[in-house]
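Give me the fold.
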Amino acid sequence: MSRSQAVKRVVSKKITRSGGVLLAAIAVAALFAGVAGWAFEATPVFIGLINSIVDLCHGILTRCLGYIGLARLVLLWAGGLILLTGILFAAVRAVYTLIRSTLAIKRLPVKDKKARLLIIEDRSIFTAFTHGIIRPRVYISRGLMESLGKGELRAVLHHELAHKKNRDPLRFFLLAILKDALFFIPLGAY
């Protein structure tokens, strides 16, 4: 291949490459000009669309403000329904807990189940409590009775008898229902 043919070939490749770049630049410019022209022609349409959306929102807001009384009524009923559901849940939970504790207490080794003061015949348990909503009874374990002195035992018995006299198991039952029913008030958890 002669030198002149080689020069022609290199020059034609450069022209082809630069022509491709030039062609791409012309295409991008034409696309930009087309989009810009379309945007300038479509601007009134966009403004009209935006005005329509603003009018729609204004109409919805005006209608909603007209139904404010209905919204208050719906919110009142919804709140009442939530409160009623909470009370129902709390009552079911409290009754379930009461039944479970009553069944557990029935399994305790107690001699005379009709007495007013029930002694749990287990030396490994150290407890005293009052149980029963309608007829509260005092329970004390043999282990606690043997581990305390006379004065301490008397204080424990007076304490549990005060719970029985004040019907505290019923109060605690009702307070548990109230606490669970008003779950949405954070202070009720304490």
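The longest helix spans residues 3-66.
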